[in-house]
Amino acid sequence: MALSFQQCERARRARDARYDGRFFVAVKTTGIYCRPVCPAPQPHSRNVEYFASAALAARGGYRPCLRCRPETAPHSPSWQGTVTTVKRALGLIHEGELCEQPLASFAERLGVTDRHLRRLFDEHVGVSPQAYALNHRLLFAKQLLGETALPVIDVAVASGFQSRRRFNDAFQRQFDLTPSEVRRASAPTGSGLSVKLRYRPPFDFSGLLAFFGARAVPGVEQVEADTYHRSFSVGERRGWFSLARAASDEALTATIHLEDAKDYLPVVQRIRRVFDLDASPAEIHRVLRRDPRLAGHLARHPGLRLPGVWSEFEAVVRAIVGQQISVQAARTILSRLCDRYGDRVAGPPALCRTFPRPESLAQARLAGIGLTATRAGWVVGAARAYAQGFRAGDGDLHDRVRTLTTLAGVGPWSAHIVCLRALQESDAFPATDLGLYRALGLTRGSAEQTEAVAEAWRPWRGYAVIGLWHSLGDAG
Q1: Residues ≥6 apart with Cβ < 8 Å to 7
Q2: Of the candidates 221, 433, 469, which has an alpha carbon nearest to the alpha carbon of residue 331?
Q3: Cβ distance 54 to 79 under 8 Å?
Q4: How many CA atoms lie within 13 A of 156 on its CB side?
Q5: Domain boundary among 28, 52, 72
Q6: What CATH number does the domain containing 47 carry?
Q7: Catalytic residue among 8, 34, 65, 352
Q8: Residues 147 and 66 both lie in one domain
C-alpha cells in the first residue's frame, strides 16, 4: 500500500519504527536522506520529500545519513503489492543476483524480455533493475564497513564487485565518501561477520524460536535460551550462523561464519527471509485481528512472522517426511538423514552437519532411517529433480503449487507448506491441515470449509495459519 505525504509526515514526526524502511526522508537543505526513525533534529515539512526506497532517494541526488544509516533499515515491502515479476525480481536482487549477470539473462529467468522488465521497474519501482541492484549492493557494503572488521577487499567481494578499484569508484560516486573514510569513522572491532538485522516492530521472536526449537534437526540446528544456531550450504561451500536479539534497537544480531566472502550477501538475505524480517506486522494485524479466532492470540503475541526454511529443496524433503507423522517422529528421521548424507561442518559440536544437498540424496539408499519404501522413493525422486535444476519457479502462488505437485509425493498440502515456509508466499494456505481443523474447531473438517473461512484473511492467509498453529499452545 502506497503511503501518502500525510502518513509519512505523521510517522516521521513520531519516529514510528513500524514504518522503518517503508519510506525514506530526504532533506532538501542538506542533500541527505534518512530513515523515519532518525534521532537527528527533525527538519521543517517544507524542507523534506519522501521516497519509497533508498534507490529512489539516491537517484534524486541524496546521500545516506551517517547517523541513522539507511543501509540498516528493513527492506521496503512496497513491492509486495505490485506485479509478481517485480516481486520475484527484487527478491532475487536482494539475494545477490544481477551483480555481474547481463540483464537479458536475468529477465529470461523471470520469463520476460529485458525491455519489459525495465518498463515494469520504471512503473513500479521508479529506477532500473541495474540501478536498484547497484544501490542495494553498495548499501550492504556500507553496513559491512560500519559494523564489521572485514578487510575492504573482502567487503568489495561480499558486495558483488570483482575488483577493489571498481568498488571504490562506485562507492564514492554513490555516497561521496570512500570506503576507507567510512571504515575510519566506524572503527569496528572483532573478526568475522556480526551484523544487525533490523525489523519493524512488533516482532514475536520467542514464538519463532519455539516453533524452530520444536522442529530443530540435531546436528543442523540448535535453539538455546534466546539464540538460534544453524549450519548451511551455499553451493559447494558450508558455514554456520547464530542469531540473537540485539541489546538495543529493533534488531537481531547475526554472527556468520563462511568460507568465502562473496557468500555474505545471499546468506544475510536468506537469514532475513527465514525469520521474515521484512514483514510489515501493522498491515498484517489490521486484517487478521478482525477475526476473533485470531485477535486474542495476536493481542497476547504481537508481531507474527512466517517461520522459514533455509531452501526450497529442504522444505520439500521436510514436507514429504512429515506427512501423517508427529513433529518429533519427523525430526528423528531428518536427523538420521542429515547424519548419513549431510556434509561435515567445521563448526561447534552442535552444528556438525548440513542439511543434505540434492546431489547427495539423488542416488541415496534410505533404508533404515524410518521411512517407508514409498516415501523414501519420493525423497530420492525429489532430490534427482532438484539436482537437475527443478524449482517451483517465479510465477504466482497458483503456478508454484501446480509446479511443485508434479513431484511424486507432493500434493496440494505439501506444496502450500513449501510455498509458505520456503518461498514466503504470504497467501499460501494448506487447506487440509489437521492442526488448522483443530484450531478452527472443525471436528470433521474439509478444504471447502477452511477455504471459506480463510477468504477474509487474504492476502495474509499464511500468517493466519501460523497464528492458528501457535494458538493451539496458548495457555489462554
Answers
A1: none
A2: 221
A3: no
A4: 18
A5: 72
A6: 3.40.10.10
A7: 34
A8: no
Residue 302: inside a domain: yes
Comparing 475 with 24, the larger pLDDT belongs to 24
CA–CA separation, 44 and 251 (whole Å): 29
**Residue pLDDT, tens place only, 358-413:** 999 999 999 999 999 999 999 999 999 999 999 998 888 999 999 999 999 999 99
Among the candidates 151, 176, 191, a domain finishes at 191
CB within 8 Å of 452: residues ≥ 6 apart = none
Query: 476: pLDDT confidence band, cut at 50, 70 and 90?
Result: very low
The pLDDT of 135-146, averaged and rounded, is 94
Q: Out of 20, 276, 427, 433, pick the active-site residue.
A: 433
Q: Are 298 and 289 in contact (CB under 8 A)?
A: yes
- Distance between CA atoms of residues 201 and 203, nearest Å: 5
Q: Which SS3 state, helix, strand or coil, does residue 467 take?
A: helix
The model's pLDDT over 149-205, given as tens digits with 9 standing for 90+, comes to 899 999 999 999 989 999 999 999 999 999 999 988 776 665 558 999 999 999 999
Domain limits at 92? Answer: 78-191
Q: What is the pLDDT of residue 475?
A: 38
Cell 537543505 maps to which residue? 29
Assigned domain for 158 exists: yes
Mean pLDDT score across all residues of the chain:
92
Contact predicate 159/141, CB 8 Å = yes
Transcribe 222-272 into DSSP letters: EEETTEEEEEEEETTEEEEEEEEE-SSSSEEEEEEEES-GGGHHHHHHHHH
**195, β-bridge pairs:** 254
Residue 398 in any domain: the answer is: yes
pLDDT of residue 141: 96
Told to judge if 8 belongs to the known catalytic residues of this protein, a careful annotator would answer: no
pLDDT per position as a tens digit, 150-165: 999 999 999 999 899 9
353 DSSP 8-state letter: B
Share of the chain above pLDDT 90, in %: 82
pLDDT score of 58 = 95
Please indicate, yes or no, if residue 364 is contained in any of the structural domains: yes
Domains in the chain: how many in total? 3
Residues 155 and 298 in one domain: no
340-377 residues labelled b (16+ CB within 10 A) or e (exposed):
bbbbebebeeebbbbbbbbebbbebebeebbbeeebbe
68 is known as an active-site residue: no
User: What is the pTM for the complete model shown?
Assistant: 0.92
Strand 63-64 with 32-34, pairing: parallel
